[in-house]
């Protein structure tokens, strides 16, 4: 599951002597403890930030979503359907060892072998084979080549035998109360000294730190977004991000949610962050809005709906409270139960829920919605399937194919999930810090944070 937390921030508790901008660390925060850096088992938004800074995938995605070289200088499709990669010779791990084909093979095979491996990465590699020929790694998958390459951008390559060691533009070290990334001699030539994260889950604390200039960047409170301090500027980046609700008790509750989402969220509650969703799949991925086409009528109140959600996310909590108030007008009570993220994911994967919601970030290509549909997709928590799924999936080779419309129509007849709100990322950034916004967010494209720079203005 690709959950997205839009809060960024950090409090620095000591006054430091100003450093030259070139040597100044970017000060950031994490809303949750990501756990140990682990390129095999690590999962979740905060963990992916750690991996994006300290690791390299075979291919990257540019800010506009195009495929670009990363660890692989080039690749070609062989006659038997394998994709073969020519690796860079100037990529090294933190111990100085060069990145080799055996590291690629080990990483991919571990992700397929380890039952605790990241569900997102396992889904990317579902049905895939990997090997080495003439010193070059190759991958073969039942997925369309275009989709496979796009998704491999989310699979950083670890050093053989060391799931915590990557070759990325920043070296990672864990300090007491902080996650620190420092610039490496790397082919992306990072232009900032590094980034320091501290744990700051409280949105009010993030806001205070932003206003006092203790943060290089962060997400302001929704009601205060346009009150940008002189030290910062407002940056808005469109995201393929949605607040999604899954139903394990049929389509009836989703029909109610589809009705309520139209007027549940006051404009002042969303501000610049987003707007109520209209269809079933993200419009930003090229899908036309489509309503649920269920044969039965929506349930009538009074009724009780039990909904699980990730604890500690103030934005989500406020949205769900507004949704609950809207539901009461139709005679329904939504019982909201917050769960720590790991527990929520566990309940979702076990199917132990009536309704459950989370923030989801989609990759910038239509194949991202397959995570809802495919039997082992990381967002298929209800076992959704259809006899024509395999046939249409094979025909959906390019965005805009007729097969996409047919797939969405099949989903619309009995969807297992419904988006409530479409989000974009609204952040304040230090005026001296140059960053490149993208639909992938600040970290997940190439060059990502390695392309940031300080200037004197």
From TrEMBL:
Keywords of the record, alphabetical order, are:
Signal, Transport
Q: What SUPFAM superfamilies does UniProt report for this protein, alphabetically?
A: Periplasmic binding protein-like II
The regions listed as transmembrane in this protein's record are: none
Q: Which sequence ranges form a coiled-coil region, renumbered to this chain? A: none
| Every Solute-binding protein family domain range | 67-215
The record's section on Gene3D superfamilies has: Dipeptide-binding Protein, Domain 3 (3.10.105.10), Periplasmic binding protein-like II (3.40.190.10)
Q: Which family does it belong to?
A: Belongs to the bacterial solute-binding protein 5 family.
* Name of the protein in its database record: Solute-binding protein family 5 domain-containing protein
């Amino acid at each position: 599951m690709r959950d997205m937390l839009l809060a960024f921030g950090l409090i620095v508790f000591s006054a430091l002597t100003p450093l030259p901008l070139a040597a100044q660390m970017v000060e950031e925060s994490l809303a949750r403890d990501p756990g140990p850096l682990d390129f095999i088992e690590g999962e979740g938004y905060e963990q992916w930030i750690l991996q994006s800074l300290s690791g390299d995938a075979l291919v990257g995605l540019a800010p506009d979503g195009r495929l670009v070289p990363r660890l692989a200088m080039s690749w070609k499709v062989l006659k038997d359907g394998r994709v073969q990669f020519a690796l860079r010779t100037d990529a090294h791990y933190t111990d100085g060892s060069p990145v080799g084909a055996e590291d690629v093979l080990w990483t991919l095979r571990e992700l397929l072998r380890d039952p605790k491996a990241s569900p997102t990465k396992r889904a990317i590699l579902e049905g895939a084979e990997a090997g080495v020929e003439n010193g070059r790694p190759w991958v073969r998958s039942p997925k369309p080549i275009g989709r496979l390459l796009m998704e491999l951008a989310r699979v950083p390559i670890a050093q053989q035998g060391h799931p915590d060691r990557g070759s990325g533009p920043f070296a990672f070290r864990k300090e007491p109360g902080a996650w620190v990334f420092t610039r490496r001699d790397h082919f992306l030539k990072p232009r900032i000294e590094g980034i320091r994260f501290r744990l700051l889950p409280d949105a009010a604390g993030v806001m205070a730190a932003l206003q006092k200039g203790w943060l290089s960047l962060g997400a302001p409170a929704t009601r205060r977004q346009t009150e940008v301090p002189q030290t910062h500027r407002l940056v808005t980046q469109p995201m393929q991000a949605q607040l999604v609700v899954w139903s394990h008790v049929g389509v009836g509750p989703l029909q109610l949610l589809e009705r309520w989402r139209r007027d549940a969220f006051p404009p002042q509650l969303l501000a610049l962050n987003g707007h109520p969703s209209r269809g079933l799949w993200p419009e930003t991925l090229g899908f036309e809005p489509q309503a649920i086409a269920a044969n039965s009528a929506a349930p009538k109140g009074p009724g009780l709906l039990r909904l699980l959600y990730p604890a500690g996310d103030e934005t989500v909590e406020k949205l769900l409270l507004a949704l609950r108030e809207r539901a009461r007008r139709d005679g329904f009570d939504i019982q909201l139960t917050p769960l720590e993220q790991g527990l929520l994911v566990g309940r979702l994967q076990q199917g132990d829920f009536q309704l459950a919601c989370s923030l989801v970030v989609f990759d910038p290509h239509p194949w991202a919605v397959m995570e809802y549909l495919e039997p082992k997709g990381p967002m298929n928590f209800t076992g959704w399937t259809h006899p024509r799924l395999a046939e249409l999936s094979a025909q959906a080779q390019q965005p805009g194919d007729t097969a996409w419309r047919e797939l969405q129509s099949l989903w619309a007849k009995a969807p297992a999930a419904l988006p409530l709100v479409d989000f974009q990322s609204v952040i304040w950034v230090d005026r001296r810090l140059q960053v490149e916004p993208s639909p992938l967010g600040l970290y997940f494209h190439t060059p990502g944070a390695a392309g940031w720079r300080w200037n004197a203005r």
